[in-house]
Design goal:
four-stranded antiparallel β-sheet, two-stranded antiparallel sheet, disordered N terminus, 6 strands, 126 residues, alpha+beta
Amino acid sequence: MTKVTRSGTHHSATQHSGTTDWTPIRESSLLDLVSQSVKQMDDEVRHLWKAVKLPQPELWQQHPWGDEGCGFWVVAVFGRTCVYYNDISAGFCQSTFRHWGSIDRYTKDDPRLEDLLSRCLLTEIA
């Protein structure tokens, strides 16, 4: 398996006449965000996180939105759903996937991982 790496030291997105210029987040910065989120999780959400998180974040493709930055970092998977960090909107999102390594749809979701996972728990309970 070939590991794809990204350049850039931070993430940002700016809109210029209909196109988005963005610098993808580095894995180390993503891991810091995830670590901060885990500290904010209550016990129930932390239990879910431990069950669904990937051992290491993986870059997955999402065409066309993720093309410029080599994809988006996926941090967790449950069933046919992945949780990924959207560098463009600077938030954690979820999407279905049909093939490992390919995010089906682009979404803009919660900026915080713990909020997204809390919502997933509420959906499961309902």
